[in-house]
Amino acid sequence: MAEHAIVVENLVKRYGDFEAVRGISFRVKRGEIFAFLGPNGAGKTTTVHVLTTLLKPTSGKAVVAGHDVVDEPMEVRKRIGIVFQDPSLDRELTAYENMYIHGRIYGLKGSELKEKIEHLLKFVELWEFKDKPVKTFSGGMQRRLEIARSLLHEPEVLFLDEPTIGLDPQTRAHIWDYIRAMKEEHNMTIFLTTHYMDEAEQLADRIAIIDHGKIIAEGTAEELKKLVGNDVVYLKLDAPEELKCLRAEFIRGCKILADGRVALEVENAAEALPRLFELVAEKGIKILEVTYHRPTLNDVFLHLTGREIRDEGAENPMAAFVRMRMRR
Amino acid sequence: MEALTTMAYRQLKRFARAKSRVAGMIINPLLWLVFFGMGWSKVFDNSMARTVFGGVDYLTFLAPGIFAMTVFNQSFVAGVSVIWDKQFGFLKEVLVAPASRKESILGRIIGDSLVTLTQGAIILALTFPLAENLKPSGFIPALGVGFLLAMAFSGFGVSLALRMESMEGFQMIMMVLMLPLTFLSGAIYPIDTMPDWMKALAYVNPLTYAVDGARHFLVGASVAKFSLGVDLGVLTVLAAVLVGLAMAEFERATIG
Ligand SMILES: Nc1ncnc2c1ncn2[C@@H]1O[C@H](COP(=O)(O)OP(=O)(O)O)[C@@H](O)[C@H]1O
Ligand SMILES: [Mg+2]
To answer: Does the beta carbon of A110 sit less than 6 angstroms from any atom of ligand 1?
Structure first.
């Protein structure tokens, strides 16, 4: 067995004139959880669909579980499982029937299939609902069923496209537990996409940050945060936009956030703060609010693109803020 | 074979789940039979009219037509189910599976054709007490004709659905096709008395051969227009071609 479960080289996918994936390369090791982190429209789903043989790449090469996705799609399909971003269950049928049909299509049958269905429905805690039609399930239950279904044929590589999108925080944490258990129990390779930073950070061994169809950084969460520096100071200033970005030799980077606050990258916040106060006083600017914390993946994205990754309340920014402050 | 039987099983299972829909589906042909058929049957209750309808009463003439019409209309459900699966995402689940796509889609078409045929059989059974001269021995063979018709139009519906994004577009095409093909099939009046230009259209209408084939079995050769061989031949070739096209289309399918 090769060392890598996924090898992608210079992958390009165009829809008409629009280039959704613009020449990406990366490798995922066996047994690793690898996350694609990026905002909506970054090209995550497109990449997943190419890797799972549902879309033909425009150019480039992708090898999944040892087989080329273009030359041997059938061999790839045998070895992968996928939870699509959008629901893909048969809503008219029951949870059990959905599992059963999937198993049969993948060539399982008889008592082996029955045992596996029972085991997996118990694993995702849906066994007691096995005879209920899927259309009566909550979003979280449907997601769990899809996860169970994707594991039925014991794939070598599992693709999870935004596995917790639109779910409440409790359900999300619950699904993370399943994902961790899957990796530990089956040593499965998992390719995960998400636009939630906390999800990437919680689950992934390595993260690739993707934006506008390009990978702009790759590494462990720790490695990525080192790109930013040690600390980030957030200031709320009573100053016109053009004066907000303060300049001094101890300020390594400065970005203005969507909410008007300023994020300053510094080596050591404790030492930088007094100097900052002086600087601000010199310029006659008033500080309304100050906080600082270690960089998050959001800061990394901000650092790399000048934009923030979070949207539509993936997590409440203020809540995250408060949590960070309390931890210090 | 796994994919074929599993997909056929799924279509049947879905049908069994949706019992209320089933009732709704057979109401329409029943209305035709009762109100249209019984309404006109007294008007045509004279020897001259009987001659026009091949020597039988009007309801007997009409019954095979209603049966074929039911199967024809319901066949498009196969297409509708493909569009639903597109919209609800189940299609991706099939496309990403390591099973023969040709088999999967053939299984679906067979499953949907069996569903369609069940509804046709219910309608046909209900026509027997109303029409005087239907042959009970023709029931099963007529279902065979219905199955060929169902396969042909399910195949057509699937090919069409694979190219369409919305339910609305698909339903538009169905509406546009359904009534003209029904009128031009000899189901409600004989082809022989049609104006020549209409006759020409009736000859190229596949439904014509299903109606005629069903008449062979349910009423007798004397009321049929073509030979049984022509009817069955046309339907078989048509079903093979349309199902074959659907299979080729599905083999190439990607997601949008
Ligand atoms: N079928 C398609 N046709 C045209 N453009 C598409 C299609 N699918 C996706 N796109 C575009 O490609 C880009 C990447 O989309 P996607 O891969 O879904 O991103 P993500 O999953 O990261 O949100 C987006 O700008 C999207 O609008
Ligand atoms: Mg996506």
So the answer is: no
Distance from CA of B83 to the nearest CA of A (A): 13
Residue B115 lies in domain: 2-252
Q: Please count the other Cβ atoms lying within 10 Å of the Cβ belonging to residue B234.
A: 19
Assess contact for A169 and A93: CB atoms under 8 A. Answer: no
Residues, chain A: 328
Asked whether the beta carbons of residue B88 and residue A53 sit closer than 8 angstroms, the reply is: no
Segments making up each domain of chain A, as ranges: 4-225, 230-293
Residue nearest to atom 25 of ligand 1 (CA): A41
Tens of pLDDT, residue by residue over A299-327, are: 889 888 888 876 544 444 444 343 333 33
CA B198 to each of CA B53, B158, B193, B194: distance values in angstroms, whole numbers, following the listed order: 18, 28, 10, 6
- In this structure, are residues A292 and A280 in contact, taking their beta carbons and an 8 Å threshold? no
pTM > 0.80: yes or no = yes
How many contacts does A have with B, using Cβ atoms within 8 A? 71
* H runs (alpha helix) in chain B: 2-17, 19-31, 38-43, 47-52, 58-87, 90-95, 101-127, 139-163, 167-183, 196-204, 206-218, 228-252
Q: Is the dihedral of CA B174, B179, B180, B184 positive or negative?
A: positive
Note the CATH architecture for domain A4-225.
Answer: 3-Layer(aba) Sandwich (3.40)
CATH number of the domain located at residue range(s) A230-293 in this protein: 3.30.70
| Length in residues, chain B | 256
HSE-CB of B123 using CA atoms within 13 angstroms: 35
Q: Which amino acid is at B157?
A: G
Domains A4-225 and A230-293 share a fold: no
Domain count, chain B: 1
Ligand 1 binding pocket mutation candidate from A18, A24, A161, A311 (most atoms within 8 A of CB): A18
Query: pLDDT digits over A25-49, tens only?
Result: 999 999 999 999 999 999 999 999 9
With beta carbons less than 8 A apart as the criterion, state whether A197 and A249 touch. Answer: no
Query: How buried is B112 (Cβ within 10 angstroms: 0-12 exposed, 13-18 middle, 19+ buried)?
Result: buried
ipTM confidence:
0.89
Question: What letter represents residue A163's amino acid?
Answer: P
CB of B253 closer than 8 Å to CB of B101: yes
pLDDT in tens, A201-240: 999 999 999 999 999 999 999 999 988 877 888 888 887 7
